[in-house]
Design goal:
Elements: H1 2-34, E1 36-38, E2 44-46, H2 50-56, H3 59-89, H4 99-113, H5 116-126, H6 133-140, H7 151-165, H8 167-178, H9 183-191, H10 196-225, H11 228-233, H12 245-255, H13 259-302
Antiparallel strand pairs: 1-2
């Protein structure tokens, strides 16, 4: 058994080395720049943690952080339940055999295939109040809508764009978990007179938990790093109302060429994403362990 595990590690060793080369080395470069004041290619001075202290006192960054957390929390609160609901509404085995389920899966996957910059362009045209179907239709109802001038309209449009783009990922993952549930479980629940909510909670959720952890982690990381879509759609405006962390970082690094502060910001940004994902994963795993212990205690009590 130990020999098989060693061979398995040797099999993934090339992947580990590639990830280390493509991920760790650039990260170390950013860390190096974050403790230096870079004047030009050949002139730089060591400044220690000065850039970190400056970044943490930057009110514009704190505002962008608040907008980023609000955006991530909003899209996750909408997309996770929506994806699960879509997956539950799809036909499954044995009724799902044939072209119907396959066609639905292809349709669900289509938004995921659209490049991020194209998503922003599509919604920029779609939501324009003069020629866009959405914008013109809302204005035709007598509601003044202009996402390029009104902050609340820009936020709603940004949320709608993300909700159009990403629930398919959760739906596909949830559908894969639901199709692994034997029909006998549903038949037993029906004989017991279980309601739809009880079926979802006690039959489906245990099978969905693993895939949903993956889906939520992917969406959490992606929502925290989103850049292209809001940049194309609103450019961070009106004003800075939709300027999220990634766009603020790009403005600092590329627009202003503040290499040192931008590097310090990048390190803090990376640690923030890592911390939030770790907290989520730890909370979920701890809850699963507590539920397993509780079930084992119930079994022992019955025995």
């Amino acid at each position: 058994m130990q020999a098989n595990q060693n061979r398995a590690w040797l099999g993934v060793l090339p992947v580990v080395l590639i990830v280390a080369f493509s991920g760790v080395i650039p990260l170390m470069t950013v860390v190096n720049f974050s403790v230096q004041d870079v004047l030009d290619v050949n002139t730089r001075f060591f400044v220690g943690f000065d850039w970190y202290r400056e970044i943490l006192r930057d009110q514009r960054l704190l505002d962008a952080l608040g907008r980023q957390l609000l955006f991530s929390a909003t899209v996750l609160a909408i997309e996770i339940p929506l994806g699960i609901a879509v997956a539950r509404a799809m036909p499954r085995e044995p009724k799902g055999r044939g072209w119907g389920a396959a066609a639905l899966l292809v349709l669900l996957a289509l938004p995921l295939l659209v490049p991020w910059n194209v998503v922003g362009t599509i919604w920029q045209v779609y939501a324009r109040p003069d020629i866009g179907l959405l914008g013109h239709g809302i204005n035709a109802l007598g509601i003044h809508y202009n996402f390029s001038q009104v902050s609340s309209h820009a936020w709603i449009t940004l949320i709608l764009m993300d909700v159009w783009h990403w629930p398919s990922l959760i739906a596909l993952l949830a559908f894969s978990g639901l199709t692994s549930i034997p029909n006998q479980h549903y038949q037993a629940a029906e004989l017991d007179g279980a309601s739809r909510w009880q079926v979802f909670r006690f039959v489906e959720m245990p099978r969905l938990r693993s895939v949903l952890i993956i889906g939520v982690l992917l969406r959490l990381m992606d929502s925290l790093m989103i850049y292209t879509e809001p940049f194309v759609l609103t450019g961070g405006g009106p004003g800075t109302s939709t300027t999220l962390l990634s766009q603020y970082l790009a403005t600092m690094a590329v627009g202003q060429f503040d290499v040192g502060p931008a590097a310090a910001f990048s390190v803090l940004y990376f640690l923030l994403i890592l911390l939030l994902c770790w907290l989520f994963y730890t909370a979920v795993v701890k809850r699963d362990l507590e539920q397993d212990f509780a079930r084992q205690g119930e079994r022992a009590a019955h025995e």
